[in-house]
Design goal:
Layout lengths: L1 H40 L2 H5 L2 E8 L7 E2 H15 L4 E10 L3 E11 L15 E13 L2 E9 L1 H7 L7
Parallel strand pairs: 1-6
Antiparallel strand pairs: 1-2, 3-4, 4-5, 5-6
Length: 164
């Protein structure tokens, strides 16, 4: 009898671990869906709801690490202004445990309103980029994100290598 109670208790413990893991994946899937919907609507305020206030972000486009939601807000606001037709299309999503997601997605857009430092030859240039984003999530918020993409491909599409 005691042996069956211990076995039953072990089974309950295992089931609760499995159920909590499923809920974590469900939560991550909802966060990722929310994030990409907000990105495609260019809704910066809605997008920022997904981030921890102390989020750390890296990208080949930046020098160093962007820290905090203010840096995120500035980056996305600038991107959406520069490329008003910017679109994000999710391909594959891979989960590692209940706190890490790796997302493959494609961005497309046209550099319609470049920033002051952007060379004039890039104006009106269209691009398609394959991206890989690694998100670390804690308590339902993104605490770290690392973006990877082929910057050479982007520069080629922008006409950088055509310049004399």
């Amino acid at each position: 009898m005691i042996r069956s109670i211990k076995a039953f208790s072990a089974l309950i413990a295992l089931l609760s671990l499995l159920i909590s893991g499923c809920n974590s994946h469900t939560d991550m899937k909802q966060l990722i869906r929310h994030r990409f919907n907000a990105l495609n609507r260019h809704d910066v305020n809605e997008l920022l709801r997904d981030y921890d206030i102390k989020v750390e972000s890296t990208s080949p486009s930046w020098d160093g690490i962007h820290n905090g939601v203010a840096a995120q807000k500035a980056s996305y606001t600038s991107s959406f202004k520069s490329m008003p037709n910017l679109r994000y299309d999710v391909g594959n999503i891979y989960y590692s445990g209940d706190s890490v997601a790796t997302i493959e997605y494609t961005t497309t857009g046209t550099l319609s309103h470049p920033e002051n430092e952007t060379p004039a030859y890039m104006l009106g240039r269209k691009f398609i980029l394959n991206n890989c984003l690694i998100l670390k999530i804690k308590d339902g918020k993104i605490i770290k994100e690392d973006l990877y993409f082929d910057q050479i491909s982007f520069l080629r599409q922008m006409g950088f290598f055509d310049q004399q």
